[in-house]
């Protein structure tokens, strides 16, 4: 009974985390929109006056809410990790097939339960490791418009994860998916996010308008 309650609690927490990530993605997309100040950009113009081209109260509200969500996201993730450790340790005398499964280690997506079964399996494969950071990004580029930001740590870009020959693989992945949405998993100030970026032609160089520095 305790094990069932713990699984139910973990599922609910993962659903909450998914909802938080969707809210964070939406806020980040607004802040990083073309002409926007980004997450930490200056709200003053070159003369020290409030910028007239942006809605400063709305931006401050978004930044405050993003900070709250990040704190809540960290607390929920810590609690999920604790629950999974208990379930995995065997303290509840459960078989491996009864552990909850987190189907999205990076994005914290919802749990999937196999049809015809009341139990679920857990996947303890480690999350992806950052293999690159975005150290340059152009305004109005596809990367910027679709939500990537300077300093993002890249965990996965489409089918490309940590490994060898990363720059050629990243270029090939962008070319193969020109005009198609690509799932990009990143860490942003310690918080995992999953974005959808569409490589495409624009007025600048490349299909993304950003530079990946391999770690």
Task: Quickly describe the structure.
By secondary structure, the chain is of the alpha+beta class.
Overall outline? flat
Count of helical stretches: 4
**Major sheet, described briefly?**
5 strands, antiparallel
Count all strands and give the number. 5
Low-pLDDT residue spans? 91-127
What would you report as the Rg, rounded to the nearest angstrom? Answer: 20 Å
User: How many domains would you count in the coordinates?
Assistant: 2
Major sheet strand order: 4-3-2-1-5
Percent of residues in helical segments? 25-40%
Order of helices and strands: HHEHEHEEE
What is the typical, i.e. mean, pLDDT? 78
> What is the end-to-end distance?
46 Å
What proportion of the residues form beta strands (DSSP E)? 5-15%
